[in-house]
Write a structure and sequence with these properties.
By secondary structure, the protein is α/β, with parallel strands linked by helices. It has helices at about 40-50, 70-75, 95-100, 110-115, 130-145, 160-175, 190-195, 215-220, 235-240, 260-270, 300-310, and strands at about 5-15, 15-25, 30-35, 55-60, 65, 80, 150-155, 180-185, 200-205, 205-210, 225-230, 245-250, 255-260, 295-300. Strands 6-7-8-3-9-10 form a six-stranded mixed sheet, sandwiched between helices. α5 runs parallel beside α6 (about 160-175) and α8 (about 215-220) packs across α11 (about 300-310).
């Protein structure tokens, strides 16, 4: 039996349909990602599954229980880390963990949880004095205080610096290693690719694709992307005619998709190319058409979303 089984989920806010007939399941022990831009319906879907919000239609079963009929039973067995954690003023770290432990019939030892999340040195610090990474570690620790079977993490690394983000990734990998099921929402592509067994790509309340990151990339973003800064005088139509180019997207920067990157790069860097202005690749100045900030990379989940929806995840 799946840990989560969602069928035909719908949620409207006036004339806006935030969640439009979502159906999916999450298997025991997997890290399941929900990927999409802000406003795609990720957080609303999670809040319904967690029993925090009522849907307009559809059914949700969590750990074998109908969450709409028995939300209290479900809440005893899940852990939830929201996008923002609000704690009482002048609460110290240890006090926050003790407070949450007191809310459950069964809770993990406070000292054990503090050690696991490297919070011992901050035990007597006020929570409003913690760094972003420390606060996120605390919020995830609070979500695990009842030793839940299923953990929801809603954009746990948003706003963190790269080192703090890596630390949170290690924490999430540790949760999975203890056999827990994790549902993760994120708009960081590298986060989903590293952590998730499967990813649901969500756009405007719909699931547009659902599979492992590797399979999604292979099916929708195969090949190599060549990116560079867009400059005045760029002839996009001429770029589309370059040998080996499968697709061109030109907005703030230019992205060329190809299965033969060596052919495309040779043509792209030719100073006599018809798409380039004077000084394109080897000129002395900053002439129109010059290639700047050139990057070559393999397909990513960002490319998957662009391929499926025609727009960027960060729009």
């Amino acid at each position: 039996m799946a840990d989560i089984d969602v069928t035909g989920l719908v949620k409207r806010y006036g004339h806006v349909v935030a969640v439009d007939g979502l159906s999916f399941s999450v298997q025991k022990g997997e890290v399941f990602g929900m990927l999409g831009p802000n406003g795609a319906g990720k957080t609303t879907t999670l809040e319904i599954i967690e029993g925090l919000r009522a849907p307009d239609a559809g059914t949700v079963h969590v750990l074998g229980t109908d969450v709409l009929a028995h939300p209290g039973t479900v809440k005893e067995r899940i852990g939830v880390q929201l996008q923002a954690t609000a704690l009482p003023d002048f609460t110290k770290v240890r006090e926050a963990v003790e407070l949450f432990a007191a809310l459950y019939r069964q809770a993990r030892p406070v000292a054990e949880l503090m050690a696991e999340f490297n919070l011992e040195e901050k035990a007597d610090a006020y929570t409003d004095k913690l760094s972003g990474g420390q606060m996120q570690r605390l919020s995830i620790a609070l979500a695990l205080i009842n030793d839940p079977d299923l953990v929801f993490l809603d954009e746990p690394t948003t706003g963190l610096d790269p080192q703090a983000r890596l630390n949170i990734w290690t924490v999430i990998e540790g949760i999975r290693q203890r056999g827990k099921t994790v549902v993760l929402t994120t708009h960081y592509m590298e986060e989903a690719e590293r952590l998730c067994d499967r990813v649901a790509v969500i756009d405007r309340g719909h699931i547009v694709a659902l599979d492992s990151p590797r399979h999604l990339i292979a099916a929708n973003a195969a090949g190599t992307t060549v990116e560079f800064a867009r400059v005045p005088g760029l002839d996009v139509e001429a770029l589309r005619k370059l040998p080996g180019v499968d697709r061109v997207v030109a907005d703030g920067q230019v992205s060329l998709t190809t299965r033969t990157p060596e052919v495309v790069l040779h043509a792209l860097l030719d100073p006599q190319a018809p798409w380039a202005g004077a000084g394109s690749a080897g000129g002395d100045g900053e002439g129109e058409g010059m290639i700047r900030d050139l990057v070559v990379r393999h397909g990513t989940l960002e490319d998957v979303f662009l391929s499926l929806t025609g727009r960027s995840l960060r729009e």
